[in-house]
Amino acid sequence: MSELNLPILDLSLLDQGPESAARFRDELRTATRDVGFFYLTGTGISPDLEARLLRAAKDFFALPEADKLAIENVTSPHFRGYTRVGGELTQGRVDWREQIDIGPEREAITDPDGPGYNRLVGPNLWPAAQPELKDVVGEWHDHLTGIARKLLRAWALSLGAEEEYFDRHFGDPQTLIKIVRYPGKDDPTPQQGVGAHKDSGVLTLLWVEPGKGGLQVLRDGEWVDAPPVPGAFVVNIGELLEYATQGYLTATNHRVISPRFPDERISVPFFFNPALDAVLPIIDLPAEFAAEARGVSQDPTNPIHATYGENALKSRLRAHPDVAERWHPDLVAARAAS
After folding, report:
1. Mean pLDDT of all residues in 11-38
2. How many domains does the chain divide into?
3. Helix (H, G, I), strand (E, B) or coil at 70
4. Do β-strands 264-273 and 203-208 pair in parallel, antiparallel, or remain unpaired?
5. Which residues contact 327 (CB under 8 A, 6 or more apart)?
6. Could you give the count of Cα atoms lying within 13 Å of 182 in the half-sphere of its Cβ?
């Protein structure tokens, strides 16, 4: 365990022969069994691409307010586009950040009798004043999709499943990229950049602006800092992988504390998840692993659903009540009645 409070794993070990690959898989299983979080190096992401992503993020948030609000997420029934500072909630409390949400580019599904999560499918909203943002995000998405697939194949083998286990059950992956800016706060006490939560899907790859702290992970009942490591992603698993392993692997609570004014912080989480209609089956773990499975976390106010789309919809309705009330009052009413 590093003094950074989280393990550091090197993805390039998978390409350095059978012994190195087996060591990586063991480290991967241990990290997500014991912590649910780790740093990932050796991903092959170039410093140039990181720099272009950061520049594009800063340029977006520097746009005039009118340009950002032209793609505000309240205009999207699919929860895409720009969210102003204070426009998202975690655990019912306001998060102090602004962001743009970008998902798979799709035509909207108009079937009124389909499942509610179909409403998450649709086009993105891109700023007309910054056409280059779409290109750098597309390049980032493609690189991280490759990393995510490589990780999931290693996870499958580490859990005693065949290497293509996740490929087979994912369908058309439902990805989400959030480009987030945490503005500085000058209050005397730490502020909620984003409140404590677990991710609702399978896998998150988080890129953080170099030198900018604020991420904290809950370990053994204590909040520990997870500052950025140069050239590394912070990786964590979500509720669906905890479900699929019946608690052998752990989805971990985490949060972000706002930076102190006049500082700010840019981060870009990439969520790699199954198709909305995919049901990730419970993995048939080897006996020694199954004996250590702790069961799925039970929270009556935050149930974990087997179908990914139900998990994703639950999270979006909670996080963006203004979008939900404008476009999906029937889903809001159904949740209130359940």
Report:
1. 96
2. 1
3. coil
4. antiparallel
5. 77, 119
6. 27
